[in-house]
Amino acid sequence: MKKIIICIILSTLFLVGCETQNEKDFRKEIENFPKTKNLKIIKEKLEYFKKNNPNSELIKKAEVLIENEFNNQFKEIKKSFENSDLSLGYKKITELERNFADFTNLKEEIKKLQPDKKYIELMNKEEIIYYQIDNFIKEFPEYDKEKIDRLKEKFLTLSEKEYEKLEKMEYSEEALFFFNFEREVKGFKAIYPDFDKEKINKLENKVKIFEKKHKEKIEKERKEEVNRRKNKQIKIKKALSKLSKNYDYNKDITWVNNGSYDNIKVYGGYNGKKYNGGIWYRMKFKYSGNSWIFFEKAFVIIDGVSYPFWFNLNEQETDIYDSCCEYYDIPFDPLDDVMIEYMIKSKNVSIEFVGQKRRTYKLTRRDRKKLKAILELMDAERNY
Length: 384
Description:
Blueprint: H1 2-36, H2 39-52, H3 58-82, H4 86-99, H5 106-111, H6 114-124, H7 130-139, H8 145-168, H9 177-191, H10 197-241, E1 244-248, E2 253-257, E3 264-271, E4 280-289, E5 297-302, E6 305-310, E7 317-320, E8 324-331, H11 337-345, E9 349-354, E10 358-362, H12 365-383
Antiparallel strand pairs: 1-2, 2-3, 3-4, 4-8, 5-6, 5-9, 7-8, 9-10
Helix pairs in contact: 1-2, 1-3, 2-3, 3-4, 8-9, 9-10, 10-12, 11-12
């Protein structure tokens, strides 16, 4: 019996010794907290003691420590907002929510930060709308009156700066600035409804002046466009008069060409009997000689510079009159305009046909003249 009692006493003493060591560890964590800032361990040990040693005086100390730490972090957030450091303030709010998520009144405490947060947000805005200040005052009627006055002062400063910017603006024909300016003035009136009426009238009169200038510009452009079209029609009519026109009844196409040619020509066509715009152009290469050469390539050589053309032999057309004739009829590439210009200006132009045999011919003065007539038509259509 005595042995049993002794065992019980020893077991009890052992347990008491363990709890005492836990208390020592807990006390040490509490004392070192200002250096370690290890809030997680303090909270874990507090929960342990509440369950296993609810009468420990360390529980109260830990609770006071946690509450003080909450207050300190809360003060730091307010200080960040007072210093207009929104990013730091938001960061500290996130830390506060993470560290004290178990606080029952956490949301209520964070709500107390809203006035400062909104105040700084408004002060940092490049544009403040009048109703934002009214809403702020209604939402936080007890807020610092001095700060409210600063908000109003900033609102007036912004309105004057915006007015000066609009007042200095000048009409820009290139950007058709009238439309943007009118929208800016309307926006200014909406944002600053209590602004100086005389100055507002000055801006609205400026809108009317801009509108008048804009209408004058539009009318000027309209007249210029009418004249441009007239000049274009005159140029085209003059160019067409130098060319022959043949109407194809079956296809309802009028072909415009420069008559017979020796080796190369450019011609065009448009729908219907009367020209209404939209000529498309084609280019013809022709070889004629005593024998067939079945050419698949042609080189236009201008002052030693060669411009190559490749063909599909299956698309070649042939005729026999006084000689063997071979033709290719291909769409005209607008990029070849420059080549045609060089051909007209140069007196040293030749065309080489390459197939089973080679044949080279010098471009005749007649062909150059005919090319010039069709080029004038192209120029009138595209550039006027």
